[in-house]
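Inverse folding, one chain.
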């Protein structure tokens, strides 16, 4: 080829070989410059698949204009042979550089940032390289890294069109050949599954590992051995391969090399942000920093899109924040799962938080508000409540998951951040916060009541509902909290009490509230709540009770903390209450959710259908009572309200109407008219506690008389006054087959059997507290029970007379990531059929600056 002319390019010398052809130095006689010219190998010139990929390389790379991607000038054909013309580079490939061993740390950081900058540019144009390896990375003489050879790049369809043209998108031969170099290929690529930009992130992780350690992350004597290593093995920690590598590299590499794409960095931009923080570790200047900085709205859009994307199993969703200011966002979390609580440390830079990532148990982590790198604390079985000015932690130990992200039945403990065993202080504490002088304000659960105590032992406020998010003012003279009147949901008000016990209600009742903190000056309370609809927004309220909206957007915002300089720590939470049918092995066999808040209540006698509540936005303000067959056929909406149970003959469903006036409604499951029942002398009806008695003529329901606590009542549906059948503070719902007993949990969390006709309650011998009844057995000799908060959830059969227990089955959602709790469950009397709900939250944490 030397001396030949292709078009107006005169070939001067051969300078290399590519995956599909030879590369020559050529002279562009028209523009008087030297260029690189790649020619398809003669053996491949008749291979239509290779030719298509060759043309695709040109289209893909020519669409990119970035200093870290080789520039494409032209494409053409000569005597049936295609060629491509690009800029001529002087230097060496990364593979050639690695022949001398590992690179200096500062150089690795610099090269890594440049590579990711190039990937960012490609991915933003929906282009995936798919063959990233040291041979395709070129280092110029002036230290610039260029990505070469988009020869098997895959053009992703744009979000606007969602069009994929199969004839131009083919990336495999008809024989199913998987392309690329196996040591750098992602697991999904090796399995010939569809790939996206996260495949490039995996390849980059392998390259970063090799630049640091001088050895491949995955290697074997044969290609098969190497493939096995990529699919199944974890590489040796880089600090073991090269001890002087800063430990900060380790989590970045690990995050890139996750086997499942959902667990990796979800964008090259997030990866670039993580790498940019290493400049503080390695001393590297990041000249390209402006393109790495957080672009507030764009980063937030992509951040929430990641959560919604994974939650919707690949369905891309958009996100836009509507705010009266122009805040900036710095993302701090990148794993898939749930953040339970988070606080700034006293320096305002470090952030401590508790999270359950990828279905693993809750752990406490610390990270910097300026870096996404996290470090696990040596504290197990601990839920973070607060951080003191001296960086002492208040944690809850041994607690069980509630139905939300709170923990119950735990023990308050103090733990030094620097390390050491926690010191237990008080049982039954669910929330706590530090005052400036080191005293603790706590929410203490005692005999069915929530008590706000400050200091510990001095009761400032008590309620038969529940208290959450207690926060002491910066001056230490006031305690703010969220007050929830009903046990079953998170409606409530924002309240303040002073040290003398004088309480002020600063807000109307919100549909949902979750998250509270004082502004730095102590003149306002900021909180996240729902005014109407289903998305929590960030609000502020002062002592005058005048409130204002600060930030809103689709999805749930949860305020975690506010730093002294006004930066806000917040999580974006994609929440749902899903419903699934369990198979005999406990694994989910069918998703029975209607929308995104489906609550299982009761199974029909034949076990073929489930009565459930749908309380998501499409259901309407008063929720929906629905019936659905377990075969997955469409649900039937029976009416408004919160359902209880089905009648013995399956013809009626009980519903508690949530609007005004509160009443019980009997809804026909077939033809017929609803029947309203107004219990006499009942002030408030509790949702979800209504059940039919075995005779079909009486119902039980939960409510309270004026000035009294909630309890369970018996009512003749033909008329009459309700009769209390449980003590105050006890709601029982599980009725024995003979109608003589109803099972519930007393104030000490013991499972108790209450005689419906009156008499002393019975306890099951040897059964410890904490179990919840699900169903009686057919013969009435046993009850099926479970502990809330367990994942997987184990169902036991316990004999009511002997207390002997037997494990019946365990149930577990199909996807574990973000699953906070399982329950309630609807169980048949022989435990062969089970439908359960589970609460799932997928969280992303941000530090937001500029909010006012």
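Residues assigned per position:
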């Amino acid at each position: 080829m030397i001396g030949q002319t292709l078009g107006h390019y005169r070939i001067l010398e051969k300078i290399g070989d590519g995956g599909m052809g030879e590369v020559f130095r050529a002279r562009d006689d028209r523009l008087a410059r030297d260029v690189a010219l790649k020619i398809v190998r003669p053996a491949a010139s008749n291979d239509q698949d290779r030719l298509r990929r060759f043309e695709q390389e040109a289209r893909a790379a020519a669409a990119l204009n970035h200093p870290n991607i080789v520039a494409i000038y032209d494409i053409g054909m000569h005597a049936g042979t295609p060629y491509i013309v690009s800029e001529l580079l002087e230097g060496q490939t990364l593979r050639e550089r690695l022949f001398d061993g590992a690179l200096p740390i500062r150089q690795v950081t610099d090269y890594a940032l440049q590579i990711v900058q190039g990937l960012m540019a490609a991915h933003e144009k929906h282009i995936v390289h798919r063959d990233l390896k040291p041979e395709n990375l070129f280092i110029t003489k002036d230290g610039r890294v260029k990505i070469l050879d988009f020869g098997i790049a895959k053009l992703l369809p744009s979000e606007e069109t969602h069009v994929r043209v199969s004839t131009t998108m083919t990336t495999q031969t008809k024989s199913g050949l998987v392309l690329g170099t196996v040591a750098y290929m992602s697991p999904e690529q090796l399995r010939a599954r569809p790939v996206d930009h996260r495949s490039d992130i995996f390849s980059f992780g392998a390259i970063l590992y090799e630049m640091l350690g001088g050895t491949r992350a995955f290697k074997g004597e044969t290609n098969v051995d190497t493939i096995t290593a990529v699919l199944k093995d974890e590489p040796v920690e880089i600090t073991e391969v090269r001890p002087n590598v800063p430990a900060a590299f380790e989590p970045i590499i690990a995050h890139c090399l996750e086997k499942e794409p959902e667990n990796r960095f979800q964008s090259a931009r997030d990866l670039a942000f993580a790498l940019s923080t290493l400049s503080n570790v390695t001393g590297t200047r990041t000249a390209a920093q402006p393109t790495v900085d957080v672009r507030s709205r764009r980063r937030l859009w992509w951040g929430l899109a990641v959560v919604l994307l994974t939650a919707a199993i690949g369905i891309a969703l958009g996100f836009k924040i509507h705010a009266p200011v122009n805040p900036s966002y710095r993302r701090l979390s990148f794993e898939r799962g749930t953040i339970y609580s988070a606080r700034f440390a006293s320096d305002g830079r470090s952030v401590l938080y508790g999270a359950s990532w990828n279905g693993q148990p809750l752990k406490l982590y610390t990270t910097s508000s300026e870096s996404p790198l996290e470090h696990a604390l040596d504290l197990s079985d601990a839920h973070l409540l607060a951080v003191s000015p001296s960086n002492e932690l208040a944690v809850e130990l041994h607690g069980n998951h509630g139905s939300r992200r709170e923990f119950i039945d735990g023990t308050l403990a103090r733990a030094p951040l620097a390390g050491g065993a926690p010191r237990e202080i008080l049982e039954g504490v669910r929330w706590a916060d530090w005052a400036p002088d080191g005293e603790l304000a706590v929410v203490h659960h005692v005999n069915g009541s929530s008590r706000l105590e400050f200091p510990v032992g001095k009761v400032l406020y008590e309620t038969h509902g529940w208290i959450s998010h207690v926060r002491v003012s910066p001056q230490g003279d006031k305690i703010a909290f969220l007050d929830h009147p009903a046990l079953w949901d998170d409606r409530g008000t924002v309240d303040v009490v002073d040290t003398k016990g004088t309480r002020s209600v600063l807000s109307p009742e919100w549909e949902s509230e979750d998250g509270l903190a004082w502004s730095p000056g102590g003149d306002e309370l900021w909180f996240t709540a729902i005014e109407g609809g289903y998305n929590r927004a960030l609000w502020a309220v002062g002592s005058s009770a005048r409130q204002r909206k600060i930030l809103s957007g689709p999805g749930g915002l949860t305020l975690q903390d506010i730093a002294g300089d006004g930066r806000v720590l917040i999580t974006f939470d994609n929440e749902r209450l899903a419903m699934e049918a369990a198979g005999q092995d406990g694994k989910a066999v069918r998703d029975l959710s209607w929308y995104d808040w489906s609550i299982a209540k009761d199974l029909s006698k034949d076990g073929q259908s489930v009565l459930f509540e749908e309380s998501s936005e499409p259901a309407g303000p008063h929720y929906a009572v629905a019936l659905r067959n377990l075969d997955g056929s469409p649900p039937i909406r029976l009416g408004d309200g919160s359902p209880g149970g089905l009648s013995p003959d399956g013809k009626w469903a009980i519903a508690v109407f949530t609007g005004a006036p509160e009443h019980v409604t009997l809804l026909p499951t077939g033809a017929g008219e609803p029947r309203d029942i107004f219990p006499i002398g009942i002030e408030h009806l509790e949702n979800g506690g209504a059940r039919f008695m075995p005779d079909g003529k009486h119902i039980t329901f939960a409510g309270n008389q004026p000035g009294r606590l909630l309890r369970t009542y018996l009512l003749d549906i033909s008329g009459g006054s309700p009769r209390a059948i449980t003590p105050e503070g006890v709601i029982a719902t599980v009725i024995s087959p003979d109608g003589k007993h109803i099972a519930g949990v007393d104030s000490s969390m013991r499972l108790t059997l209450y005689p419906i006709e009156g008499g002393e309650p019975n306890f099951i011998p040897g059964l410890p507290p904490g179990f919840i009844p699900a169903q009686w057995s057919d013969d009435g000799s046993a009850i099926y029970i479970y502990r809330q908060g367990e994942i997987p959830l184990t169902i036991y059969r316990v004999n009511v007379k002997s207390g002997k227990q037997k494990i019946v089955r365990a149930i577990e959602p199909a996807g574990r990531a973000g699953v906070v709790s399982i329950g309630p469950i609807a169980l048949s009397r022989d435990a062969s059929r089970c439908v359960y709900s589970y609460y799932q939250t997928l969280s992303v944490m941000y530090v937001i600056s500029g909010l006012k």
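The first helix runs from residue 48 to 62. Residues 647 and 809 are 27 Å apart (CA to CA).
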